[in-house]
Amino acid sequence: xxxxxxxxxxxxxxxxxxxxxxxxxxxxxxxxxxxxxxxxxxxxxxxxxxxxxxxxxxxxxxxxxxxxxxxxxxxxxxxxxxxxxxxxxxxxxxxxxxxxxxxxxxxxxxxxxxxxxxxxxxxxxxxxxxxxxxxxxxxxxxxxxxxxxxxxxxxxxxxxxxxxxxxxxxxxxxxxxxxxxxxxxxxxxxxxxxxxxxxx
Length: 200
Hints:
The chain is an alpha/beta fold. It has helices spanning 15-18, 45-56, 89-92, 110-118, 123-140, 157-164, 184-199; strands at 12-13, 30-35, 63-65, 71-73, 95-100, 153-156. The protein has a six-stranded mixed beta sheet, sandwiched between helices.
């Protein structure tokens, strides 16, 4: 089992913001991907600003990853944080959440948003989140499969809204294969490649 996969590099410790705000602990079987809908900026401020915003609004997140591949991490994937469909314990209690710093939802059309996520300068961000998915697969046994937010695997905030909120609410990380803009299947396949390479 891919024992060579270790905790990926962490650039910002999110514990000062979120420690003590967890609503219990539970071993997770799902990863939920979000987009911050905020600007990418060089350096770490584009990680700390969304995390501070969440904290100020009574929300938390396990990880934040920006376009440069910098990572903020709260160091406790078992913590139950309020990050997906507020108050919905059916998702929050079983999932690890990652915010991907992204202004892409500001773009007007799905086609524009797809093109933006496919640009070469986004690969580092996508590969970094895939590395975290691979790590959590090894650490917690989270399946490296697409999930519609009802089954174990990797899902999106869009899927959470469709499966649990009758389609209302958020549409960030709307998967391409479900008509949207985010390359979620790329993340899944890349994570599988990382695990397979570690096992080789």
